[in-house]
Amino acid sequence: MPITIDGVSHVRLTVRDIATSRAFYDGVFGWDVAFELPDDADEATREKLWFLFGGVIYSIPGGLLGLRPVAPGDDAFSEDRVGLDHLSFTVPDRGELDAATELLDSLGVAHGGVKDAGGMHILEFRDPDGIALELSAPSA
Predict the structure, then answer these.
(1) Number of domains composing the chain
(2) What is the mean pLDDT of the chain?
(3) Which CATH number characterizes residue 44's domain?
(4) Could you report the per-residue pLDDT of 42-96, keeping only the tens digit for each?
(5) Are residues 68 and 46 in the same domain?
(6) pLDDT of residue 140
């Protein structure tokens, strides 16, 4: 009998530089932080938050998204390797995609414009490590 799931708990992305990635994800999404290690953390707090690996975990609708800064500086994401192809987030409607293009433009984030993907509209862009991200909205 197959395993039955009722959602996704969390996704963690491996990044090269936490400061650069934090600036991007904070600016684009503005999610609340669920877990991060305070700069002045004592040893007990550091042991309790060992799972952060120097990164951050955001609270997002439906779960958590973490950034784990352990990739070498010369590493690069490729959706053509085994692993992640892209990560897609839903937005309520096409208007949100149009607003997202304006935000991405204001932040200097390159994107592919809103596209009709048959049954939904999508907006593709990449984070500072080249991780492919997408916003999707149902077609009206």
Answers:
(1) 2
(2) 94
(3) 3.30.720
(4) 999 999 999 999 999 999 999 999 999 998 989 989 999 989 999 999 999 999 9
(5) yes
(6) 73
Closest CA relative to residue 89, chosen from 2, 11, 4, 1: 11
- How wide is the angle at C-alpha 7 spanned by C-alphas 19 and 132, nearest 5°? 40
Backbone dihedral angles phi then psi of residue 15, each to the nearest 5 degrees: -125, 165
Which residues, 6+ apart, have CB-to-CB distance to 72 below 8 Å? 16
Collapse the DSSP code of 52 into the 3-class scheme (helix H, G, I; strand E, B; otherwise coil) and give the result.
helix
For residue 122, pLDDT over 80 is answered with: yes
% helix, strand, coil for the chain, step of 5: 25, 30, 45
CA distance 135 to 97: 7
Look up residue 119 and give its two tokens. 């049954």
Domain residue limits at 125: 83-140
Dihedral angle over CA of 107, 111, 113, 115, nearest 10? -140
Asked if residue 45 is part of any domain, the answer here is yes
Rounded Cα distance, 91 and 138, in Å: 8
Residue whose structure tokens are 């060992």: 50
State pLDDT tens for residues 66-80: 999 998 989 989 999
**Residue 36 lies inside a defined structural domain of this protein:** yes
Considering the domain architecture, whether residues 57 and 98 belong to the same structural domain is answered as no
